[in-house]
Design a protein that fits this description.
This protein has 16 helices and no strands. The protein is an all-alpha fold. The protein has two domains: about 150 residues, no CATH class; about 180 residues, Orthogonal Bundle (Clc chloride channel). Helix 9 packs parallel to helix 14 and helix 12 runs antiparallel to helix 13.
Length: about 400
């Protein structure tokens, strides 16, 4: 009886912590939304070059955050990797990271909130795990199952699993008003032929992803001289963002709420404008991340890939909208963030489910290309080694 009472207390503690984690994470997104409205909808900034002023001010604040709060939070890829390798996401610097991410996002960064949310959910879940471990010890609940398999590990850590599951459910319910309507609705219904068209569009999306990664390496080299000058680096990048946003307001924020607008106006914007929008977004994502602004790549890359895919459709009108958008998007994001399952889950959440097959084809094209490239490299290396060995013998 005493043991069952302890298990009940531990379950209640896990459920309570899960509710708190989910509520805090959802509240953070609402806080960002409120901050963006407060900064960008004030009457005194309704003039043409307001983005230049606001983004420059944001760059100064970001520079001070880098100097005094440190380089936090982790980017999306780094956070996911730490969770995968250690099962934890350290939370000591979580408040510092949330302040930096909040300032970045409300001052118009061409970045998304997903990196901050992953750090928040992961950090708070790790904190909850530590608290539940202490509670379990205090209640003297024995650890009965060894860590032999995944099932055993989950059974042993059931309080953590319970807390995280409840946190995710509360978080999804909590942000329903912000994202419940989805971020893009297509006029064309799904057709099976779209799956075939998604293959060439995926190849183009992969090319865009490779361009993004190359641009990131180039940016890292060019901004190396500003590494020890965070304030100057922040204000310069803020000025560039603000100046571009004066002429292309779609460059502000993460871009997911501009997706419908770009889709509906694609024919009016035309090939060159859509291509410029996509390239400008890829450029700004790299510039801001390298300059200390904090945010995620997922949503901005969605926006860039939609603009890029629709620019190609302007050249070839017979390409289906769904293939141009989702085939390109899935491939580009998978190249940049090589987590195929995560890519498909996120796209399933934010886009109509009937197009998930197109996304899966886009991801599959990238995975097959990666496998093929590795096999080719392996054969080239083996042939080179054999040739070298024969030369040495001769």
């Amino acid at each position: 009886m005493k043991k069952s009472g302890g298990v009940f207390t531990l379950s209640a503690g896990a459920a309570g912590l899960g509710i708190v984690i989910g509520a805090i994470s959802a509240a953070f997104l609402y806080l960002i939304d409120w901050g963006q409205h407060a900064v960008w909808e004030s009457g005194w900034i309704q003039f043409k070059y307001a983005p230049l002023l606001i983004c420059s001010l944001g760059g100064i604040l970001i520079g001070f955050c880098q100097r005094y709060l440190g380089d936090h939070p982790k980017n999306l890829h780094g956070a996911v990797e730490e969770i995968r390798k250690t099962g934890r996401l350290e939370y000591a610097h979580l408040p510092n990271g949330l302040i930096s991410a909040f300032i970045s996002l409300i001052f118009g960064a061409s970045l998304g909130p997903e990196a901050a949310v992953v750090n928040l959910l992961g950090g708070l879940s790790t904190w909850a795990s530590d608290k539940l471990k202490k509670l379990s010890s205090w209640l003297r609940i024995p650890e009965s199952t060894p860590d032999r398999t995944l099932v055993h590990r989950l059974a042993r850590r059931w309080p953590n699993v319970l807390a995280i599951s409840i946190a995710v459910v509360i978080f999804i319910i909590g942000i329903k008003d912000l994202y419940g309507g989805g971020v893009l609705k297509l006029n064309e219904p799904f057709a099976w032929i779209d799956l075939l068209w998604s293959i060439p569009m995926a190849l183009l999306g992969a090319t865009g992803g490779a361009l993004f990664l190359g641009l990131g390496r180039w940016m890292k080299q060019r901004l190396r001289f500003l590494k020890q000058k965070p304030v100057l680096r922040g204000v310069l990048s803020g000025c560039v963002l603000g100046l571009i946003a004066c002429f292309l307001p779609m460059m502000l924020f993460s871009g997911q709420f501009y997706l419908q607008q770009v889709y509906e106006q694609a024919a009016i914007l035309g090939f060159w404008m859509l291509l410029w929008i996509a390239l400008a977004r890829l450029f700004l994502i790299n510039l801001l991340l390298e300059s200390g602004w904090k945010g995620g790549q997922f949503f901005p890359l969605m926006f860039a890939s939609v603009a890029f895919g629709l620019s190609i459709k302007n050249l070839f009108p017979f390409v289906p909208d769904s293939a141009a958008i989702f085939g390109t998007m899935a491939a580009m994001i998978t190249i940049v963030l090589p987590k195929p399952i995560v890519v498909l889950i996120v796209m399933a959440i934010f886009f109509p489910p009937q197009y998930l097959g197109i996304s899966a084809v886009g991801v599959g094209v990238v995975m097959f290309g990666d496998w093929l490239w590795k096999r080719i490299k392996e054969r080239v290396v083996n042939k080179t080694n054999r040739f070298t060995n024969h030369s040495l013998v001769d």
